[in-house]
């Protein structure tokens, strides 16, 4: 198959461009990839994790094709693909997983042992994640297709709900995972740190899981308004006020049952310190705010190398934590990539049967591939939107 292909390419700190890139092949280096498929990308999303790279806060190389949130139509199958067919519309988990290693067999697909020579775990178009070509493009290759891909059961229904279903590749399962690992359940009081797309997805997930009170904290008024739009309580962290006291005004107690960190390593201080980075501030707030015996889910990204960090220790991922407080309160902490396949089928059903309007919750805005650089700029400016790229204009049509 010989067609053109274009993709969003990282060109150095603060700059992305749309470039002509190679059309994908069913190959891994010099050998064939008969277990893979080639997708025509229907939707591909800009993620906050991409934004960390574009800001220059990682060691991402210039020329990296970005994008790990992919939904597409299968246009070619490798010889060994048995259960996925040409014409299927599928969601691609951002975790690349072999399905054969110990971790994959245990359902820990975010730390597959065979798809990245540098460390456990891989993703499309992401620094240190195995060198896989990203999916903010017109076409992309997906390996281990039978294991990785979630096929939508009805094409017409999938296209009707595509703005919701596109979020299954990452942020919806990631937000849900954050809540599950924080122990959210019926009657829980939950604090969500960060009202970006993952934080809003976590807030919507907490409601699915039966939380009684979902409190979202952020410093951007538009994002807090978005959280309020589907019934969340909010706290404005620009205020010079104690977080526990602000939570007590809402919930009647200065503690929460579950805390979900959807901010990660570029966290800023609160109140008068909001202009300055304090990368440990959310984790320390989590230990202060979560009740004794409570749980803390950490889907927010933390890195081993942050060349742009203000603090020298933080440049190597070393943070100043009050870990003794967490120990004293018998907290449980859960970190790492979401194993998307643990949740995506169930969340697909929740979407298809109208149990959740996740696109509305995170305020999806469709853009063209050529609008991607502006989408990155707007997202970096704090837009209360989830930018979804429509590379072929198929969804707009």
TrEMBL record:
Residues 197-264 form the Alcohol dehydrogenase-like C-terminal domain. Keywords: Metal-binding, NAD, Oxidoreductase, Zinc. InterPro entries: ADH-like_C (IPR013149), ADH-like_N (IPR013154), ADH_Zn_CS (IPR002328), GroES-like_sf (IPR011032), HCHO_DH_non_GSH (IPR014184), NAD(P)-bd_dom_sf (IPR036291). GO terms for molecular function: formaldehyde dehydrogenase (NAD+) activity; zinc ion binding. It is an enzyme of class 1 (oxidoreductase). Its EC number is 1.2.1.46. Residues 35-146 form the Alcohol dehydrogenase-like N-terminal domain. The keyword NAD applies. Its cofactor is Zn(2+). Gene3D superfamilies: Medium-chain alcohol dehydrogenases, catalytic domain, NAD(P)-binding Rossmann-like Domain. The keyword Disulfide bond does not apply. NCBIfam families: fdhA_non_GSH. Belongs to the zinc-containing alcohol dehydrogenase family. PANTHER family: GLUTATHIONE-INDEPENDENT FORMALDEHYDE DEHYDROGENASE, ZINC-TYPE ALCOHOL DEHYDROGENASE-LIKE. This is Glutathione-independent formaldehyde dehydrogenase. It comes from Amorphus orientalis.
